[in-house]
Amino acid sequence: xxxxxxxxxxxxxxxxxxxxxxxxxxxxxxxxxxxxxxxxxxxxxxxxxxxxxxxxxxxxxxxxxxxxxxxxxxxxxxxxxxxxxxxxxxxxxxxxxxxxxxxxxxxxxxxxxxxxxxxxxxxxxxxxxxxxxxxxxxxxxxxxxxxxxxxxxxxxxxxxxxxxxxxxxxxxxxxxxxxxxxxxxxxxxxxxxxxxxxxxxxxxxxxxxxxxxxxxxxxxxxxxxxxxxxxxxxxxxx
Amino acid sequence: xxxxxxxxxxxxxxxxxxxxxxxxxxxxxxxxxxxxxxxxxxxxxxxxxxxxxxxxxxxxxxxxxxxxxxxxxxxxxxxxxxxxxxxxxxxxxxxxxxxxxxxxxxxxxxxxxxxxxxxxxxxxxxxxxxxxxxxxxxxxxxxxxxxxxxxxxxxxxxxxxxxxxxxxxxxxxxxxxxxxxxxxxxxxxxxxxxxxxxxxxxxxxxxxxxxxxxxxxxxxxxxxxxxxxxxxxxxxxxxxxxxxxxxxxxxxxxxxxxxxxxxxxxxxxxxxxxxxxxxxxxxxxxxxxxxxxxxxxxxxxxxxxxxxxxxxxxxxxxxxxxxxxxxxxxxxxxxxxxxxxxx
Lengths: 238, 343
What we know:
Order of helices and strands of chain A: EEHEEHEHHEEEEEEEEHE
Helix content of chain A: 10-25%
Number of helices of chain B: 5
Strand content of chain A: 25-35%
Structural class of chain A: alpha+beta
Largest interface: A-B, 45 and 44 residues
Radius of gyration of chain A: 19 Å
Oligomer: heterodimer
Distance between the termini of chain A: 29 Å
Helix content of chain B: 10-25%
Strand content of chain B: 15-25%
Largest sheet of chain B: 7 strands, mixed
Number of strands of chain A: 14
Strand order of the largest sheet of chain A: 5-12-9-10-7-6-13
Low-confidence stretches of chain B: 309-343
Radius of gyration of chain B: 20 Å
């Protein structure tokens, strides 16, 4: 395995960079290092953020031996990923198209598929949460059927609803709270990835696996009401 | 329970403390006071721990009304004046507001953010470990507007305190460390970053401050997202850099030419829009030394009981020792007015 690049980000963070592409094997190395660091903590480290291609390690500049931290991270990164890593897998209901997925028909036309074919292709894979970022719980998923990929919209929307399911480039994502987005909206899940006050506050973590299950508009409304009351709607499969 | 009522507040008034840590892997911004030193000064003057939640203002003043009990209050931030029932409180001093008194904070002079701390802090439940507001995620109390009511925890002291010397930020260029993506830029761009006169424009907010100056276009390819933090200087394809601030997202897809060191982020936050400043690259050793100096500054704020002191002396000491004094300024930050002209 090639050694990662160690990129200081000011005096309080270091990015351990494994590559510069969106790639599941590369992303698995990021998460393996994250897990290894959680099991072998280093004094002064405050928190970590696994991303597509790098592990961001935030630390206290006053109590962290930076040279020793770098060495620690390089040693951990060089270890083979633990074989017995069993990711959590979730079934996530999605209402596709209509008021929940304004861009679905246009996206289907662009891909050359029928809307039903597009939905089936989107719901078929087992996705991996490659990164959580942008907004609390916003989950970037890897594993999209390449036929469904499409560059972001020319004109971003200033507001999209919470928990929208969208496509931007080769990625698909489960949204967070209401916010701006330049991605194509294809559906919406009643499962809220982030809900303050609920236990757990967040449904997913980087490395989790996601299976989408198409549901009707009526089912969406029923599940959304339960989610708003604090139920965790995503069903754990593994 | 006593309540502090907001009478008047411009945009960008919110509750902020030391920040919300431990949730960045889930996309939760750190948030927290834009100027931790100014927050700590205001808190020290009312006997609170340095990073107790206080009210943060942006560019404009604000007005409040004390509840049904006397309330010890103090201001923080460059040139932020405090008035109680219309009477000015000398800088570097807290004052007791009587029940129903109006409490005024002036706009910062030579700064961007002001703070109002109340003895004992606010009786609000922290959310995910912090009372800081984060607008986009809805975490923490909603931004404060006229009519907002904040319960006071009570139990704080009532004896006004004063600081012989109000600690403030040093002068000189804002210090940064190159990278993590300095290899996405030409050497000319890296040189320009440190030789140009920069200003912040009015679009700046708690998420990011936009730099006005020369364009520093990165390589044209699109970059796969990685982690960012407050202080990251990210450069979109336009070449117009943005310094990410306390409310910034946790990941980003623009290359980051450099990262402002942790000790200079508070000072950077206080540079008003339109005032020129420079950036300079420093070593890790220099950055860590600066972080240690700021930690000492925060630790050493030691207010005294104000009884019997001569307010005129306070005024003169503040003028002599105050850091917003322009004389030692090496790069023209503090000796120019908000419009960039020399004062």
